[in-house]
């Protein structure tokens, strides 16, 4: 669950539409990388109108034996980087006084505790609350801060769960949609929350979970 990557179109597709793209790798566990990402983006495009905090990692281990390095890595990438990137992007948006959209990727574990993923649950719970806190400050400035909470998605992060016949069946039995989600299932929600259609939506965590939380 979580760690969902919103589908990304190839750069060649954008080029055919006369649009510019670029790729800038960074280690989000390093706070200096966040500044570099924002500075590079502004340099390449002149502004930032939309920020999607989509990076995420997950490490599984029993809580009693959970390694400190797992905890530090997950909090740094899944929560601290979300704050730093949002803060830096918002500063730019506030200076331009033209508003903007910030979309965070939360998780069902923003609401539930999960099993064997204490750091992930803590970080994603933090993402949900951070989304609301930032929305409270920036909504009146025309900056929408919202989040998507993906359910159980067929991604690299859930390979172990999907390959476990018992756990996979337990999960599917609880999902009213009776299937694992696909990254494309998140795309529509992301487009909505990054477009003018959501201009009066602030601080919301939108579950895209096949009905999991409703059961």
Care to describe what's here?
By secondary structure, this protein is of the alpha/beta class. It has one domain (11-214): Rossmann fold. The chain contains seven helices and four strands, in the order ααβαβαβαααβ. It has helices at 11-16, 31-45, 68-96, 118-138, 159-163, 165-174, 183-193, and strands at residues 50-53, 100-105, 143-150, 205-208. Helix 4 (118-138) links the parallel strand 2 and strand 3. It is globular, with a radius of gyration of 17 Å.
Short description:
The chain has helices at 11-16, 31-45, 68-96, 118-138, 159-163, 165-174, 183-193; strands at residues 50-53, 100-105, 143-150, 205-208. The chain is of the alpha/beta class and 215 residues long. The protein has one domain: 3-Layer(aba) Sandwich (Rossmann fold).
CATH homologous superfamily label: NAD(P)-binding Rossmann-like Domain
If helices are DSSP runs of H or I spanning 4 or more residues, what is the number of helices?
Answer: 7
Number of DSSP-assigned strands? 4
Q: How would the global form be characterised?
A: globular
Helix residue percentage: 40-55%
CATH A-level architecture: 3-Layer(aba) Sandwich
Q: Regarding CATH, which class?
A: Alpha Beta
Number of domains: 1
How would a crystallographer describe the biggest sheet?
A: 4 strands, parallel
Write the CATH fold name: Rossmann fold
Oligomeric nature of the chains: single chain
């Amino acid at each position: 669950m979580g760690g969902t990557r919103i589908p990304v179109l190839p750069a060649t597709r954008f080029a055919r539409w006369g649009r510019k793209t670029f790729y800038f790798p960074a280690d989000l566990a390093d706070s200096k990388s966040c500044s570099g990402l924002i500075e590079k983006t502004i340099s390449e495009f002149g502004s930032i109108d939309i920020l999607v905090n989509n990076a995420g990692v997950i490490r599984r281990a029993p809580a009693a034996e959970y390694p400190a390095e797992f905890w530090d890595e997950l909090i740094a990438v899944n929560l601290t980087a979300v704050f730093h990137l949002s803060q830096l992007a918002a500063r730019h948006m506030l200076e331009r006084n033209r508003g903007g959209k910030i979309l965070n990727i939360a998780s069902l574990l923003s609401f539930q505790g999960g099993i064997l993923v204490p750091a992930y649950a803590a970080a994603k719970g933090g993402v949900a609350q951070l989304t609301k806190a930032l929305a409270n400050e920036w909504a009146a400035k025309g900056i929408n801060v919202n989040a998507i909470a993906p359910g159980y998605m067929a991604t690299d992060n859930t390979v172990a769960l999907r390959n476990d016949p018992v756990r996979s069946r337990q999960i599917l039995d609880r999902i009213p949609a009776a299937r694992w989600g696909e990254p494309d299932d998140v795309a529509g929600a992301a487009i909505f929350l990054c477009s003018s259609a959501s201009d009066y939506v602030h601080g919301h965590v939108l579950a895209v979970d096949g009905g999991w939380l409703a059961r």
